[in-house]
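Q: I'm writing up a methods section and want to include an example of the input and output format. Could you take the sequence below and give the corresponding predicted C-alpha cells, formatted cleanly so I can copy it straight into the document?
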Amino acid sequence: MARNSKLGHAVQESAPRSGLMDRLLRARDRLLASEKFQSAAAAFPLSRPIARARASALFDLCAGFVYSQILSACVQLRLFDLLLEGPLTIPEIASRSGLRPEACDRLATAATALRLLEKRHGERYGLGALGAALANNPALTQMIEHHSVLYRDLSDPLALLRNEARNTGLSSYWAYAGSAQPVALAPEEVQAYSILMTRSQPLVAAEVLDAYPVARHRVLMDVGGGEGAFIAAAAERAPGLHFKLFDLPAVAQRAIAYLRERGIDERCQVHEGDFFRETLPGGADLITLVRVALDHEDEKVLRLLRNARAALTPGGTLLIAEAMSDPDAGERMGAAYFGFYLMAMGRGRARTRGELESLCKDAGFRDVTHMRGRGVLGTGIIAAKTGLTV
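A: Here is the clean output for your methods example:
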C-alpha cells in the first residue's frame, strides 16, 4: 500500500510539471507562428542566422520533390558515371545524353545548386560532392530509380492516409505484400524486387557487419535473405563461417544461382518456405533478419521471432537490422520516409528501438542490446540472446 501511495504521489507531482510544459510549448508555438516575431527575428543580427536556417529548411521540405526529380533525371541519364571520366561542356553533355543543350544547361545549373555537379574551368561541369558519391554506385542509383513507383503512389497522400488508395504500385512491386499465398509466387513476380534488394543490400550489410562481429559464430542463417547478398558480404568478413538462407521458393532458386556465381555455395544451404507458417531449420547459432521485420505487422513479427528463437542453438543470437522510427533519436528516415513507404506498400511499419526490444522479450529473448550503424543509412541493429536453454 505504501508503494502505491508513493507512486500516486509521484504521478500527482508530475502532472503539474507536465501541465506547465504544455503551456510553455503552446506559448512558444504562438510566438513562432507570429508574423511580427518572424520579421523581428529575421532583422535582429543574433537571431537572423537561426531564422534563415529555419526558413531554408522549410522551403527544402516544400521543394523536396523537385530536388528528387533533378536527381532522378541525372541518374537516368547516367550523368554521374559519365562525368566520372572527366568534366564536360554543355554541348558535350548534350551530345552524350540526347537532350537539347538548353535542357542540359538547365539541368546542370539545378544539379550544381544541389551539390550534385560543380562548375569547372572552361565552362565545363564535373562531379559535385554528392554526385561523386553516386558515380559507379549501382546500390544507390537502383534505389533512386525505384522511387518513381513510390512517387506515383504518393501523388495523393491523403488518399493513402484515409486508406482510399487501392492497388498501389508498391503493393504490386513487392508481390508478397498483397499475396495470400506468397510461397506460390512465380519467378517473374519476385525478380524485380529481388534484384533491387541484392543491389541495395551492400549499403546495409556494411553497417551491420561493422557493428557486429559475425566471425564469432559458427553458422549464420539469414531469414528472408533474398538472393544471398548479405551472406556474400558476411562470407568475406568471416571465412570460417557457414550459412543457411531461408526464403520463398521462387526467391530461394535465385539465391542458389547467386551464391554459386560468387563461389560460396559450398558453404551455404538454401531452404525454401514461408517463415510465418513453417518451422525454420535448426543448427544456426546466429539468425539475421535484415530489412525483414519492418515489412510486417506486430502479430506476424512476434510469430517470426518465436520461430527464430526455437530454431537457434542454445545461447544463440538473433540480429535484427533495419531502419528504426524514433524522431527524438534523429531517426528521420525511419519515422518519415519508411512510415509513408510502407503505408504505400500496404503493410508493415518502422518501429522504435523500444518496440523492437519489447517484441524480442515477448518472444522469449533476453540480453537485448541496441547498436547503430555508422553509415549514411544509420541502420538500427538489435542483438538478442536465447539464453543457454531453449
